[in-house]
Amino acid sequence: MPRIRPGRVRTKNTNRREALKLSTMAPEDFNVRPGEVKSIACPDCRTWRRIMGDKVLKIREHCVSDKLAEGEKHTACPGSDQVVDVNIDVRRWQAKQDRLLRDAMPQDNRRAAQQFYKPLPAPAAPVSRIKAEVTLETARQSYLAHRKGCIRCVGKQHCADGGVLARRYVLALQEEPARREAREQLERQEQRTVRKQTAPAVRKAQWAKRGGEAVEMANNRCSERTSGSLSEFRGPRLPLAPQDVEAHERRQAELGKGYALRSPATSAA
């Protein structure tokens, strides 16, 4: 396979024109990127040609027509051996060209110049270090789950995390009676609050069920006092003397004889 040699200037001749300054040309009509083959659109024939040379840059000699193989006559382009003056800032020109190429590219093919990688999520903290509300059931489930998956927690032996979970479970067992009492007290307080809030509505419903206006009229109606009563707060006057005086005296005599018969036996004892 033949080796492709880089092009070089084989003559010192020029077309005797003033040097072509790149600052006077459109930025898209030449390519002077570092590391790439320098090329330019010939200002005469408007075809892309190489820029030859290291110190003195010139447009490579070329023909007006590219159809020499078809029998056309070889006619040199007046732009051949045109001296080129790179009087621009190559870095700024390259940055501008990159921006124009990126803007002209379809949106689906665009890619950011700087890649941003999503950071990997941090590993989850062990269950023994998670700070959350500890209840008896959660402490028990966490301890049993750790015991099931840990090979070092055997019998009464625990690893570091297993010991923390075990102590947390024991502490939850000790605090459970106080928590239960607090929950019951809170429930009783909530029930009292609900009763206080619903009491007016309940009394209103009861008042409507009992008759409402009829009960109010009966309560406001004044009744006359019964004969013999001292006041509305006391009952009628009670008799102080017995109705049958003779029967009362006879009963008293019988009671006196019975007490007299029992008194000697009592004194003898």
Report on the architecture of this protein:
This protein has helices at 90-104, 136-149, 160-210, 213-220, 245-268; strands at 20-21, 30-31, 39-41, 48-52, 57-59, 83-85. With 269 residues, the chain is α+β, with helices and mostly antiparallel strands. Among the domains are: 20-105, no CATH class; 127-206, no CATH class. Strands 1-6-5-4-3-2 form a six-stranded mixed sheet, with no helix packed on it. Strand 3 and strand 4 (48-52) form a beta hairpin. Helix 2 packs antiparallel against helix 3 (160-210). The N and C termini lie far apart (156 Å). The mean pLDDT is 78.
Oligomeric form: single chain
N- to C-terminal distance: 156 Å
What is the alpha-carbon Rg in Å?
60 Å
* Molecular shape: elongated
The largest pleated sheet is described as:
6 strands, mixed
Instruction: Please list the strands of the largest sheet in the order they lie side by side.
Output: 1-6-5-4-3-2
State which percent range the strand residues make up: 5-15%
Stretches with pLDDT under 50, minimum 5 residues: none
Mean pLDDT score: 78
Structure classification: alpha+beta
How many helices? The count is: 5
Total beta strand runs: 6
Order of helices and strands: EEEEEEHHHHH
The level of helicity is 40-55%
Topology:
Elements (H helix, E strand, L loop, with lengths): L19 E2 L8 E2 L7 E3 L6 E5 L4 E3 L23 E3 L4 H15 L31 H14 L10 H51 L2 H8 L24 H24 L1
Parallel strand pairs: 1-6
Antiparallel strand pairs: 2-3, 3-4, 4-5, 5-6
Helix pairs in contact: 2-3
